[in-house]
Design brief:
The complex is a heterodimer of chains A (289) and B (425). Chain A has helices spanning 2-14, 20-47, 51-56, 69-77, 80-111, 117-129, 132-145, 152-176, 180-188, 193-204, 206-222, 225-230, 239-244, 254-274, 276-284. With 289 residues, chain A is mainly alpha-helical. Classes of the chains: A mainly alpha (289), B alpha/beta (425).
């Protein structure tokens, strides 16, 4: 991974002239970025419009005056800080727990090379490939039976399992390429399996684990169907579920919906910006030299 | 002295007895009524129901534990929640075979027949509102036990921009010919008269309305409750599809409407792009708030039936711990004073005294609904018969609007879809 990303970068710095190929790549990237930003712009534009302002123009016109009622209404109506805390607690717990489980699984599969590891990995992948709709009824019966229905832990457990399945798959292949010399050195120094894991493997793969944690957090944050189904009380709900509170049977309030989407997006954006450095480090690091 | 004291003691004892007795009958300490609904807090329904909650708490002394739900959440999770300990004692739920009917047929809703009889709800509510409240064992509306009670109604009417009508010297049409003349007058001024949206429900409701002008009550029962097979090449549906095609050709409906949603059509009426919008009473409150011109409404010409029905229902889950209390609450929401609150806030009450509705902007809405009820004119919605007919009908109408289907082909196509949908039911 390191080699691929690093070589072209150094090359680019050396040659001051950009080839046609470079320009094409640049245009494609710029277009892709514009396509990604477009929904954000729509949301931003409409979050600050009054409903009448929205109706008189179209979704792309600039607001004629700044209107904050949509945001304030949504904030108060769904008790947003409570939803924020729920989402934060659930996503945070899932991110940490799923990474721990992934590391333990992957250590056994990738470095421990247990028997039947290919089939094990395939089974783990299944958890990710199953559509969530299939999981709903079995999970509903289980959580009702053990009394976790309408409890945030039902969602935490479900997503810890789903995310760690993916984490196991990914980490197992990363650990599969873990330099043997390092492990042998650790063994020579008298480290047992447990010690090798925590003092050698984990610190070295820390950047990769960081990336996983960030992704698990954001993925879980954006989940909708399972939280919607299992978190019945308003006081347990997450941000994406709260946003649907505004969608009516036949009518929708576009401006307040935009405002809610904006509020729902900001936390993940902030989280992403904070851990942005972890992400880039995780992608470029990973091997030991 | 002794006698007096004894008398006094007796009095106290008697008082104590009455207190205990009354406590015995009304001992509701520790009970709560768990209530869910999904109406926006500024809507007429929520305003009226909030008042009902206060009256209920005052009269019974039982606190109401109200949680506002989202429509989406109830739609996706109702059958699971209702089957668990988290179920509410009473909740709002969508009427229709695929929603309330389905839950009733699964035994998840508690039948309300005794409460209906006891409180006389069947005489408070007009006959045509009973249909969506009663479901058979298979979950088909129209017969069987009562499973829900509506407290508001809804119907489809024509909204029109009075400023534009005045500008061109036009009058409210009283026959379909007059309506066509009005639309022709707008077309001659280069204005498309009808705000329409074929991507969502508005076009289907206009189509159904046109069919209703040629139909009788039995045809509606056949179409909605499967009493007899429906002939999709019969006079009712042929008239609807052919008239719609004529209107599209004459320019009364824009060909662009294939890709438009109800929201687009509604906002285009609000900002005065189109002078006439044929749609439901659910827009009424929003137009009062947002319309940038004067407007009024009229029922579709012809004094016949229109799309419409009772609103959503109060249902009592089978798992409800407080069925009696739930019935009491339903009864309060049907009281004239609560119904009047609904009527005065842009809602359509089902049991209001017209004299109590004093809000000028709302009077016409309530009067027209009552007129429809008198004419036995609530004909439900075109997408109700099967779970897939909404998409089938929209696909057919989009073909008609963009010219890829002629009326006859469209009728056969949706007729086949309808049959296929019935087989699945």
């Amino acid at each position: 991974m390191t080699d691929i990303t690093k070589t072209p970068r150094t090359k680019m710095r050396r040659s001051s002239k950009r080839s046609i190929g470079n320009w094409i790549v640049l245009t494609v990237i710029a277009l892709a970025a514009a396509a990604v930003v477009f929904p954000f712009i729509i949301i931003l534009l409409n979050s600050f419009k009054s409903p009448a302002d929205y109706a008189s123009g179209n979704p792309l016109t600039l607001p004629s005056s700044l209107y904050f009622d949509g945001i304030v209404n949504f904030w108060n109506r769904v008790n947003f800080p409570e939803k924020l805390w729920n989402s934060f607690f659930i996503s945070g717990m899932v991110a940490v727990l799923a990474v721990i489980i992934s590391v333990l699984n992957a250590y056994a599969i990738g470095i421990g090379r247990v028997k039947g590891r290919i089939s094990l990995i395939l089974i783990f992948l299944l958890a990710n490939m199953l559509p969530q709709e299939v999981l709903l009824y079995p999970l509903y019966s289980i959580f009702r039976a053990i009394g976790l229905y309408d409890n945030v832990w039902s969602v935490i457990i479900t997503f810890t399992v789903i995310q760690s399945a993916f984490g196991t798959y990914l980490l197992a292949s990363v650990f599969g390429t873990f330099p043997k010399e390092v492990l042998e050195a650790a063994a020579l120094d008298g480290a047992g399996r447990w010690r090798t894991l925590w003092s050698v493997v984990v610190p070295i793969s820390w950047p990769t684990l960081g990336v996983l944690m960030v992704f698990f957090f954001i993925w879980t944050w954006n989940e909708f169907l399972i939280p919607l189904t299992f978190l019945i009380s308003n006081s347990n709900q997450t941000v994406p579920v709260a946003i649907t509170a505004l969608q009516g049977d036949r009518l929708m309030d576009v401006t307040t919906m935009s405002a809610s989407a904006l509020l729902g997006m900001i936390p993940t954006l902030i989280f992403f910006l904070i851990f942005q450095r972890t992400l880039t480090r995780g992608i470029t690091a990973g091997a030991v030299k | 002295m002794a006698l007096q004291r004894n008398l006094g003691l007796l009095g106290i004892a008697a008082l104590a007895v009455t207190i205990t007795v009354s406590c015995g009958a009304e001992d509701r300490t520790g009970e709560t009524l768990k209530l869910w609904h999904y109406e926006n807090e500024t809507s007429a329904m929520a305003i009226a129901w909030n008042e009902a909650i206060e009256i209920f708490e005052e009269e019974t002394g039982v606190p109401v534990e109200f949680e506002e739900r989202s429509f989406e959440q109830i739609r996706q999770t109702a059958s699971q929640v209702i089957n668990s300990d988290e179920a509410p004692d009473i909740m709002e739920y969508n009427k229709g075979n695929a929603t309330a009917g389905l839950l009733a047929s699964q035994g998840l809703l508690s039948p309300l027949d005794d409460a209906v009889e006891e409180n006389g709800w069947d005489s408070v509510l007009a006959e045509s509102l009973h249909i969506t409240s009663r479901y058979s064992e298979d979950g088909v509306m129209g017969s069987g036990s009562w499973y829900g009670v509506p407290t508001y109604g809804e119907y489809v009417m024509a909204y029109y921009n009075t400023e534009m009508f005045e500008e061109y010297g036009l009058e409210v049409p009283e026959t379909i010919e007059e309506l066509e003349d009005v639309m022709q007058a707008f077309v001659e001024e280069d204005i498309t008269p009808l705000a329409q949206a074929a991507a969502e429900y508005p076009m289907g409701q206009l189509w159904y309305q046109l069919a209703l002008t040629q139909a009788d009550r039995q045809w509606v029962s056949d179409f909605q409750m499967y009493e007899n097979p429906v002939d999709f090449n019969g006079p009712e549906i042929s008239y609807a599809s052919e008239t719609l095609e004529d209107w599209i050709e004459a320019g009364y409906i824009s060909a662009d409407s294939t890709g438009l949603t109800a929201e687009d059509a509604g906002t285009a009426f609000i900002n005065g792009t189109y002078p006439i919008f044929f749609s439901g009473s659910w827009w009424y409150g929003r137009f009062i708030e947002e319309a940038q011109h004067e407007w009024d409404t009229f029922l579709f010409p012809g004094e016949g039936m229109s799309p419409g029905s009772s609103g959503n229902l109060w249902v009592v889950p089978e798992t409800s711990q407080n069925k009696e209390l739930a019935h009491e609450f339903i009864d309060i929401t049907l009281r004239p004073e609560i119904q009047a609150i609904m009527g005065n806030n842009g809602g359509v009450p089902v049991a209001a005294d017209e004299a109590d509705v004093t809000d000028e902007e709302s009077v016409a809405l309530v009067e027209n609904f009552n007129l429809l009820l008198e004419q036995d004119g609530l004909a439900f919605y075109p997408d109700w018969p099967t779970s897939t007919f909404y998409d089938d009908l929209n696909a057919g109408l989009q073909g008609l609007v963009n010219g890829s289907l002629d009326p006859e082909t469209m009728n056969s196509q949706i007729g086949a879809d309808y049959e296929a949908g019935l087989d699945e039911n």
